[in-house]
Amino acid sequence: MPDAGSLHIRRLCCDRLPALPSVRHRAHLLDLMSQRRRRVYIDTPKGRLSAGFTVPATADAADVAMQLRERGWAPYKLRLDLEQHAWIAVVIDWKRAA
Question: What are the pLDDT tens digits along the chain (98 aa)?
């Protein structure tokens, strides 16, 4: 049977352990990490540029176009490249068109 001194030391050690996240919180974090995302690229005459954001794998072309418009681009053609797991956008460059 442990003596009172060892119980006191064990209690102090356990009280100082960092709080672990709850099971629900850990499951939510794993769910967020497991969601596959697609990169978005923009085709330009000088090559392909990263748009600087990703979209969920479940996003469709309308979702990608809306995010591009929010960032100042004018997309007129989008295609999904399954090999690169990315959306490729062709945009209107109004400076070159004018």
Answer: 555 555 555 555 555 555 556 666 666 655 555 678 999 999 988 889 999 999 999 999 999 999 999 999 999 999 999 999 999 999 987 776 55
